[in-house]
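Researcher: Go.
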Amino acid sequence: MSEMLSLSGVTKTYNAGKPNEVEVLRGVDLTVSKGEIVGLIAPSGAGKSTLLHIAGLLDLPDGGTVQIAGQDMTGLGDRPRTAMRRAGVGFIYQFHHLLPEFTALDNVVLPQLANAVPEAEAAERALNLLNKVGVGKRAQHRPSALSGGEQQRVAFCRALANRPGLLLADEPTGNLDPETSALVFDVLMGLVRDEGLSALIATHNLELAAKMDRVVRLDQGRVVAV
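Model: Structure:
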């Protein structure tokens, strides 16, 4: 099975050379195979968000390499990195960050329009995704009219709108109550498997992590198997 994501020797230090220097990542090696869902667990402040941002091309490592779908992204300029991030990577945050002035449908359509997808095709794709996660009937509602669980489901759809090969999620249900979190997480897992994605999902919830194909832990700046 070929690799969708490969991190090799990735390092990251904040405030390098200063008294308050913090070495967050100390040579991270991690792979996610095509179609594999990997859970990432770590205590708060251990650097999992930094790791996800580097994997998702939102931040640059100080050292090491990042490959996505076999393409080495190390050293590339902003334009090719942005193109890969826009077309090949979906990102879900703990807080949905939906655009409040637009409907649920619009929030899923807009990323596709930015990728030059025709509007009618984008709307069809968006509604199909919203139906898959059970909020199709709420497509014309703005985020303020949706529950927290519904808002996060819309955020899932937005992340998958452009058919990325790789999904990265940073505590995607962390701001929901435990019951809603479990239900919404199951929706996410179903959506990821249905779309045939590779995924790296950070969570502090060990019960949720156990539902994934494999779990790794970020420990003292390095990734170790669980």
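Model: Residues 7 and 66 are 5 Å apart (CA to CA).
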